[in-house]
Amino acid sequence: ERERLWVVDPTHPIVGDLPESFELPNVEMYGEPFGIPKPDELVFISWFQGGEVFRSGCCWRRERGKIFYFRPGHETFPIYYDENVLKVICNAVRWAAPNKMAAPSWVQGNTQPLEKMA
What we know:
The chain is of the alpha+beta class and 118 residues long. The protein has one helix at 83-96, and strands at 3-7, 21-24, 41-48, 53-62, 65-70. The protein has a five-stranded antiparallel sheet, with helices on one face. The N and C termini lie far apart (65 Å).
């Protein structure tokens, strides 16, 4: 089955340097409902030949961490060699990487050891 991925948020860093949509051949079709928490950001929607749609690129933020779910991929199809898929993965890694942030308020600096070290 063929899949077309559509960019939902063209301003999101994960879609940098990507076209507004791209097609992948020979994919496994997933369908809604998809039992996940509501995404904080929806980046991609997939459309399949039968008319099915699927939330294929979702972002969440949890405390100081970032999570990106990307649907395309299957061990028997060479999806991960597709130029656009590789670009999504690279962009997502850059987006999710920790940035320089102030230490949490509970960090008080160096703490004296409870025992003498040998």
